[in-house]
Amino acid sequence: MRWYFTALIVAVALAAAPEAAQKRRPLPKKPAPKAAEVQPKTTTPEVKCPSLIGMGVKTVRSFCDVPAGRDPNEGVVIAIPPHTGTATLTFDLHARHLYSEDEMKRGKPYARYRAVIGVLTMKGDLLTRGAVEAEFRTANDLFDRIGGGSGPGGLKAVAPAGREPVIVEIPANVEQVSLLGETLDAITPAGHETAVMAGRPVAIVSNLLVEYKPAPAKR
C-alpha cells in the first residue's frame, strides 16, 4: 500500500505543476496610451492685400479690394498654416460701392452689383468661386463705412455693400491661395458696366479666417 500512496502523491504533484507554472506567467503588458487627437485651431491668416481699403468704423474689420485678373500672384494672397488633412478658409464677400453725397441729394443714388471671384491655388487651379449681389438706395444699405477718408465725417467714398459668406476647402498640400475677380455686372448712375480689366477692383473681402489641424512639427 505504501507504494500506492507514494504514486498517488507524485501524480497529484505532477497535475498541480502546470497550474502553478501557469499562475507564474507574466501578465500581458497594457497597450500604450493613444496619442491625444490634434484639435482644430481657428486663426486670422497672413494676407498680402494689393489694395487695402482701411478699417470699418462700425465692424472694425479690415477691408481689402479683390482685383480682376488671372495671375494668382496679383490677387489677394492668403497664407494657409501648415496643416494635416483639409483646412477651411472662410471670408465675407461684399460688393464695392462708391458713395456720393451729390447723387444722394439729386435723388439718383440707385446701384446694383453682381460680382464673382475665384479662389485659386498659386498654380492657378480653381478651388471654388464666390458671388455677391447687392443693391444700394440709401446709406443704410451699406454694410459698413471706411474711416480715414476726406469725405464728411472723415469717411472714404468706397464702401462695402451686402455680405455673402464664402467657405473654401483647402487641400492638405496647399500652403497659399489667391482671390481674383472674374466678372462684375454693375448698374450705377454712371451707366451699365460689364467689362472688367485686369487689376480693376471687382469686390471687397473681409473677415478672413482659417480653421485647420496643425501639422506635426518637423524633426
Note the topology.
Blueprint: H1 2-23, E1 41-43, E2 47-48, E3 52-55, E4 62-67, E5 76-79, E6 83-98, H2 101-106, E7 111-121, E8 126-136, E9 158-170, E10 176-188, E11 191-193, E12 201-214
Antiparallel strand pairs: 1-12, 2-5, 3-4, 4-12, 5-10, 6-9, 6-12, 7-8, 7-10, 10-11
The arrangement of helices and strands along the chain is HEEEEEEHEEEEEE
Provide the helix percentage. 10-25%
Span between termini: 77 Å
Whole-number total of structural domains: 1
- Proportion of residues in β-strands: over 45%
Low-pLDDT residue intervals, each spanning 5 or more residues:
1-14
Main sheet record: 6 strands, antiparallel
Q: Helix count?
A: 2
* Secondary-structure content class: mainly beta
Outline: elongated
Q: What average pLDDT do the residues reach?
A: 87
Number of strands: 12
Descriptive notes:
The model is unreliable at 1-14 (pLDDT under 50). The protein has helices spanning 2-23, 101-106; strands at 41-43, 47-48, 52-55, 62-67, 76-79, 83-98, 111-121, 126-136, 158-170, 176-188, 191-193, 201-214. A hairpin with a 2-residue loop joins β10 and β11 (191-193). 13% of the residues lie in helices and 46% in strands. Strands 1, 3, 4, 6, 9 and 12 form a 6-stranded antiparallel β-sheet that branches. Strands 2, 5, 7, 8, 10 and 11 form a 6-stranded antiparallel β-sheet that branches. It has one domain. It contains 2 helices and 12 strands, in the order αββββββαββββββ. It is mostly beta strands. It starts with a helix and ends in a 5-residue tail after the last strand.
